[in-house]
Amino acid sequence: MNNTSLLHHFVLSAASRFIRLQLVEYKFDFELAHRLPWRRDESFLSLNPAGSLPVLQYNDKIVLSGARAICEWIEESRADARLLLGSSVQRAEIRRLIDWFEDKFYYEVGLPLLHERVIQRFQSGSCASSENIRTALANAHVHISYLNWLTERQSWLVGAELSLADLCAAAHISVLDYFGDIQWDKYPAASSWYMKLKSRPCFRALLCDQLAGVTPSSHYAELDF
Known about the structure:
Strand content: 5-15%
Distance between the termini: 37 Å
Strand order of the largest sheet: 2-1-3-4
Structural class: alpha+beta
Largest sheet: 4 strands, mixed
């Protein structure tokens, strides 16, 4: 897999960030195409009629849509695959946690915050709903408390090695951290786990990401906070 690929993404799309982390972990040669999720683009819809991100174009012949489909294709295509390994039970647990963050966490926390703080502002210019933000942050506390419980038990989310579950969870957490929505002192185990991930080379590009008009939190790019 040496041919250059094109990943269609949005800088604050957690699913897109997940795939970027995986691609860099494998030193995959790829370029980025920036998409704004609130703008209709017919050329992009011809690639993915659902209009969702991320989309990976590989070698001008293969088009893959959705983080879960893309991440498994990458694992199946790599001779050095190591992020979806272990017993059948461990692999099932990795997939369960990916589903947790891609579905439950995203719809209860990530999407409402992104919609109120970014999409609604740029799409219609309307003000954010403080009630919707409070509800999402209350949900975030429940989810991050669960993450803290998981990371108290072992170094990584599934077993003793880094897996796709860690990359997926960290990608979603990173968007909240961009907004400064996590009081890390309340979650010491999760904080240590996230700092380990932030220190990995695959995270460097994400920590440099900025969306014009939306300033990241002061500690966002810090490796020790």
